[in-house]
# Entry
Amino acid sequence: TLETVNRNSEYFKKILNTELSDVSMIFEIRIYGLMVAIDLENEVSKKPIRRELLLKIIARIYSLGCFAGISYTKDVTSSILLFPQFIASKSDLDNIVKIVKTALSEASRG
# Structure
């Protein structure tokens, strides 16, 4: 139901902001319903990350079992896009956040 989607949206927003707050390459997290964009920036230059790094992060997210899209325009935006299904449970949303955090943490280290 729409009520469930709204509850899950609020939950997803809360855990995204809580669990990803220590990932320094995140510039902004935007969420509308269950649609999410996570904007990434280079920690030094403060510009969007390179396309190659974004693709590496997306590939890692995919290899960990989650499907994610990208939004990339050179020097304008570099974002991870997430679109979980309306039937996603809180456990599913927790798993998505865990996967994204893992991929971003690995990318930050190397």
Remarks:
- DSSP finds three helices and four strands in the chain.
